[in-house]
Amino acid sequence: MKRWLTAVGITSVLMGSILAGCGGGDEKAANKETSGNNGEKVEVTLAGWGGNPSEQKLLQQTLDEFEKKHPNIKVKLEVISEQYMDVIKTRLIGGEGPDVFYLDAFEAPALIETGVLEPLDQYVTDDFDIDDFEKPLLDAFKGKDGHIYGFPKDYSTLALFYNKKMFKEAGVEVPKTWDELRETAKKLTKGTEVYGFGVAPELARLYYIAESKGGKVVTDNKASFADPKVVEALQPIVDMHLKDKSAAQPSEVGANWGGEMFGQGKAAMVIEGNWAIPFLQDTFPNLEFGTAEVPSINGKKATMAYTVAYVMNKDSKKKKAAWELISYLTGKEGMKIWTSKGYALPTRKSVAKELGYDKDPLRAPLVAGASYATVWQQGTNLPIIVNNFNNQFVSAFLGERPLNEALKEAEKTANKEIDSK
C-alpha cells in the first residue's frame, strides 16, 4: 500500500562495487539472443514486489497477453516480498540481477548514478509515443545525462477524501484552499471522537506543502528544510493539531494509516492516494465519501506523485527481449490491462482517457493532479534527509518542541550524515 514510503537509501559500498564492475563489455555480445532462432525461447526474468491477490492476477493476465503476442519469449516472474531494494542491489552486485525490474522514483537517482541501468532511449521507436506519458512521471527516471532509464508503469497522486455525511451534517462545502480546509476542519471536529483532518506527519506527504512558500527541502543534494520559508509553510499543520485541536495522526486514534482512520469515521477529511479507494470500498462498503483535488496553497495547485518504472539491467544478456517486455508493459495495450481495474493509475494520458479515469467521480481529481504534481524524488541523499526530517517533525507535531528548533536539529544531523558518507 505504501511501498514507496519505506524505501531505503543506496549504500556507498554498492556504488563502489557496481561502478567498478560496469566498465566496458561487448555490447553486441551482450545483446546476442536466440530470440526465436531454431525455435528456442528466450527467458526474461522480471522482478517486482508483491501486490494484493487482485493486482497479482492482473499482472499475470498482462504477462500472459504479452507471451501470446511474443511466442519466442517466456517471462519468469520473481516476487520479492521483503526488503526489495536490498535484495535487488545485492543481486546486481553479484551479477545475478533480473533482466527487468521495478524501480521506485524515490530510489531512481541513486541507482541511475551507479551505472547499473541500461539507457532505454536507443530502443524507442516512434510508435511507442513517449509524449503520451505524463511528463513529471517520465522525467523522474531521467538521468543527469538526459537519458531515460525507466518508463513509469503506474502512479498515484494525492487527493482530498471527505466524508459526505459529516459534511452535510456540518453544513460545510468541500474546501478549495488550505485556509478553507483549516476552517472546515474546525467545524467538523467533535472533541477527540472525530477530528476534522487526519494528518500523515511525514515528508512523503508534506513535501509539496513544505515548498509552497518558496523554500526548498533539498538544495544541492543536502537538507535545507530548516529554511524559515519551509517552517512557515509547515507551521499550520502543527497548529491544527496543537492549537485548533482539529487534526490528529492515525496512531492517536488507534488507526494504522489515514485510510483506516477515515474509514472508521475518526477523521472527516484525509489526504490520501488512489490506493485508498479500493481499500475503503472493500473495507467500509457503507461509507459515503467523495474526492477532490488537494486544496490550493497560495493560489497554486499542488500535490505529490508516487511512481514506479520498469527498468533494464545493463548487464542483461537478453536486452532485445527485455525491451520487448518493457515496451509492451508500458505501452498502451499492456498498460490498459494492468490498470483496467483501477488499483493503479495509467501513466499514459491516452489510457487514462480510454478507461474513463479522467471523468471518474473518485479518480478524476487524482488524474488531474498528475500534470502539476511534485514527484516523490529529490537526489541521491533523499533517504537520509527523509529519516531525519520525519524523526524531528513528529516531535514538533506532538508539541515536544518548536518546529523551527526541531527542523534545525534534523537538518544539521542529516547533513552531517551526508558529509560522512
UniProtKB/TrEMBL annotation:
It comes from the Bacteria. GO terms for molecular function: maltose binding. This is Sugar transporter. Belongs to the bacterial solute-binding protein 1 family. Residues 1-20 form the signal peptide. It comes from Parageobacillus thermoglucosidasius (Geobacillus thermoglucosidasius). PANTHER family: MALTOSE-BINDING PERIPLASMIC PROTEIN (PTHR30061), MALTOSE_MALTODEXTRIN-BINDING PERIPLASMIC PROTEIN (PTHR30061:SF50). It holds the Pfam family SBP_bac_1.
